[in-house]
Fold each of these.
Amino acid sequence: MLTPERHKLILQLIKEKGVVKIQDLVDLTETSESTIRRDLTQLEEGKYLKRIHGGAARLQGKLQEPSMSEKSSKSLHQKRQIAQYAANLVEEGDSIYLDAGSTVTEMIPFLPAKEIVVVTNGLMHIQALMERNIKTFIIGGFAKEQTKAIIGRGALASLENYRFDKCFMGVNGIHPQFGYTTPDQDEAMIKQMAISLSRESFVLADDTKFSEIAFAKIADLHTAAIITNELNEDQKETYTSKTTIKVVTA
Amino acid sequence: MLTPERHKLILQLIKEKGVVKIQDLVDLTETSESTIRRDLTQLEEGKYLKRIHGGAARLQGKLQEPSMSEKSSKSLHQKRQIAQYAANLVEEGDSIYLDAGSTVTEMIPFLPAKEIVVVTNGLMHIQALMERNIKTFIIGGFAKEQTKAIIGRGALASLENYRFDKCFMGVNGIHPQFGYTTPDQDEAMIKQMAISLSRESFVLADDTKFSEIAFAKIADLHTAAIITNELNEDQKETYTSKTTIKVVTA
DNA sequence: GCAAAAATCAATCATTTTCATCCAAAATTA
DNA sequence: TAATTTTGGATGAAAATGATTGATTTTTGC
């Protein structure tokens, strides 16, 4: 049984029954426990389910509020610093792409409102963008609940119609060898496409993010910068040495 | 039986009956007394129940059911009635289009969740649809702030890729001569296109809505129904005489 | 009311199940 | 063919489980 088939089956079972046991999945798919475990790990990384001892469970609807721990923490402050730096890169008249993701959302309050056009696949961004009266386009496609992102074949086709001066990407992690990474292949494809449609690409990464499906090998980023902070000299070396990208400390 | 399943079962039983005996839980879950005791200890720590000698009991004190606040306005009640009627028209396996608008939003809680696919241009719908785990696609295009609708050339192009079994339209008004009306030409075009892509079309209109740019002449609706209520006999005559549409009173 | 009997309890331990990790074989791709 | 990806099995660690023990609480019989 092929990987996408198994994933689909697992998700369907979880949707129906709420929980599913690993052994049942092994029997059903006629594969090994190892394989099912890998599947579950991947699906959990993509925020499609929650692993529990003995199997997996549907994760309940709302993502919990950002807990105090995180809200007040250094992490948020960092995110905002980076976001502000990134937003200042946008010039009046620019057409930009904003990737789905919480770090990118933080950019919106700092964007120059006049005369810019924003295209996004992030449902979370829409409200904030409209409140600032920014001309906003959303790409069409499948709405993924967990990340509030538009993904899928349709989304790729929809995205193809645009060109951007700059695009801004969130990442789940940065891997020295594989580039910027995100756990979900579908989201990775969208990111890749957006980068290819953009004159300049920027990756927003706070240093908590410093490994899964690479959505852009560093070589694919023609003109790009990792916008981050508190990167130590070793890390800087690692990334800058591989290509011509800039590492900016906000 | 997996731990979360047992926990869920225990909580459900306690919710229903107020108290539950350990031995009953042992029999029901086919596990050992030790396991149930551990479960109860954990659930008590999480403040989900109170342990008592021989079992566990619901803890009183807090969460009350939703208050009176919501269920007054007659208009809302009407809208909901209509919405519920419309939602019942959707069958499992249907692919449907939901037009942007508050009346249509009301349909979502009543939709059969299984196996349906929803396409929409209504940003307001997305959250509710995703919460119900309904496969949701949004069309791409310009995000209009006032109505939280996706519109424009891009939206039309995006919409073209779909076909629907049924589509559900909100309207601003109904005009005897011009048909269903909406004030915005862009939105009207989207509506018209959706109707042309759909095997059956339904218009949701409470009687406060019974005249600007017609988005669909009655003749354009092949198979369609106005779903409304408290329509008087004169009005009924006016609309039914013009074409084969049905007027349904919810 | 009181003591014996019964039931329930927390704590501990051995067993079983599940887990992450590693490695080699198979399958797929270049 | 070589290189990469996917798979399945093996390993020891970690977690969950079930039985046992003796203490504590409740019930029973008087």
Amino acid sequence: MRCKSRPAEDQPSMQSLISQVRNEIARALVIAIGEDARGVDPLVKPATDAKFGDYQCNVAMSLGKTLGRKPRDVAQAVVDGLGDSTLFEAPEIAGPGFINLRLRTERLSTSLEEVPSIADVESDRLGISLVTGEERRRVIVDYSSPNVAKEMHVGHLRSTVIGDVIARVIAFQGHEVIRQNHLGDWGTQFGMVILALWHLCMRKHQGESVEDFQGVTAKLTDPTLDAEARLSLLKQRARIHQDNLNRDPTGDVEFHPYLTALEPSFETLLPLYRYVSAIEKAAKGLSDEALLIHNSETGQSQHLSELSRYVAAMLQGKTDRSNEQERAAWFKAKEATLVVCSGIYRQLGVLLEDGDICGESFYQPLLHEIEVNGERLPGVVDEVKLILAPPGKEADGMRAVCREDQGAICVFLEKPDGTPCFKGPEGDALPMLIEKSDGASLYATTDIAGILYRVAHATENPVQLHIPRLREQLATLGGGLGADRVIYVVGAPQKLHFQMLFPTAHATGWTRKGDRSVQLEHVAFGSVLGEDRKMLKTRSGDSIKLKSLLDEAVDRARNLVGDMQKDPNRTTDLSPEEVENVANIVGIGAVKYADLCQNRNTDYVFSWDKMLAMQGNTAPYMLYAYARIRSIYRRGAESAPFDADVRNASLQLNEPAERDLALAVLRLPDTIDAVGEQLMPNYLCDYLYGLAGKFMVFYENCSVLKAPDAATYASRMRLCDLTARALRIGLSLLGIRTLEKM
RNA sequence: GCGCCCGUAGCUCAGUUGGAUAGAGCAACGGUUUCCUAAACCGUAGGUCGCAGGUUCGAAUCCUGCCGGGCGCGCCA
């Protein structure tokens, strides 16, 4: 409920500690040095060691240099400028010119006392203020990106989990967040799914079951199979394909009626898709007449390994065939996949919903199209060609030039002196291809169109487009999202792609929004490795399915809880329902936390034992810390109620453990801001681990329920409550629910 | 060949963008329970931050060159 009598600035809010310190120092700097010092970065950091205080200011060393004064003298001048601060104790100058700052303990207690007592657990933000006005941005977070007709595997885990944290953190700061799931639902994918469905339809003529297709797939992917046997198998499959095609060359007799009635399930679609994929991979590069499939209807022949690409091109309007049924079937296949993905998102506890799906196919209207009469309807590539026509446009310190090369439409990125920014293996310039020589679109084409859609806005960013059709198509998509920041959570191997994509996008000028530029950021991450330090695979060499990974995590957590329950020393006992809940939250939380607590840039080694350990920087440890606090709370409520005396208690931070814990709680907003800027979820994990550690020390040294007096009891109870809330908020930003008991 | 990322304790990893004596967890050794959850806590030991130069008051961090590992490099996504 809004409280209209109180102006916004008087709302109790937990202000960023470090910015308060910075402001004080900045003010002192102007007093000490004069107006020249206005705007100088005060170089305030958390102290490297508790004995140096809480924060340190390193500005004297750098300023001493530029001013030609002794750093210690500059430090003294800054300290004099601070005067009697209400924020710090008397600062100390140390070493070459460090200014050590220790916050007044009263300041810590009053800051925490201002935090409103909790009203609604779900919307609790510990009084941390929201960004408003100019500061508030519209941010798109593009993550997860599964593919149609494929199962999600561990490779999707990191994008999904990291992207979700980024979306949550930025939304918590108060920005407008648009989550987008860039589903792989176009291009070759499309062709492969339709081919799979075609096999599913025609298999009856050979009397083959889905299992038979699986058998062929297994043989083709068997590394021990010799080349001759593989070729012979491929020839046999090619013959079957040819027979089936001859039976129904237009698709009108059998295939289209089949598609119209189709209700595909993911379980039947998947093996057929794998079959198509295995056939094409095995046949690639083999030149043999017997691997050519001839279509009597079109008079054309296609190599076995090129079939899906041909089908995809055909269905994308490159031929004059009607393809309504295929598109409808494609849509159904997509739906079947999404049901499975949604299940995983629910189990994983991520925010992505069906409404966040904005896959590759969504941007197709912005791409060029070939009409039935062969006329080219221009699209985004034509627009780029116009804007970046030689001599091109400057952006990010390079020059982007769009021109045709070897029949393909390319964007070349060059340094100011004309040398290429990117090179291929022969040392020749490596362009970004945005249209293939056969006129088809690529990954980069969709991404360029995606940027246009995400960045343009009818009123906020009215991008001027030269191609009237592109303008119209954009309008049919609503005119664009008008983003201020677009974040791509995509694996590190695609770094080169984004290094070419972003400067190209900036060169078009679309990303200039008002007086600033839209931020395009690639949040790269390393691979998940097995204990053998190679990409995590099953023993048979397949990538591990996300679903089975999550199920195993819950199973392992359940066993762990079961073992703990048998311990006679334990004071808590859990009902079967509670055990199941603990197993779910601990198991899934462990998988997510293990991923998030690692610096995302590096590969990480997946280890069940480490992620489920109770000690160290793990989800179980963090959840245990929270459960311990809640246990105190429950017991306290029995004997000494958590009433107004506690909610309004003044905080007494006399013990070092109490003060350390209070300071840690107050650092939450700084941590959230750091994650929002640098997009590093492990900073938040580090913070929470530190906070939990501080609580453990407090727990061992400062008894709450047996506090020496009522005032200390109330103060410690309140500190426990604040700590629990900080942990709960932090974990919820990581997408991990907390447990009252475990 | 070129580009990107990485190399930190026996192992797995932090290190908030240049700060003081480089930190955790595991493994090893020692201690803590009539006391709010011992799934915990405290302590000890363990380092030429791959190597060699350079930049400066100050480098794990920035620059150069090597060595070792991973990934990427035109019509796939």
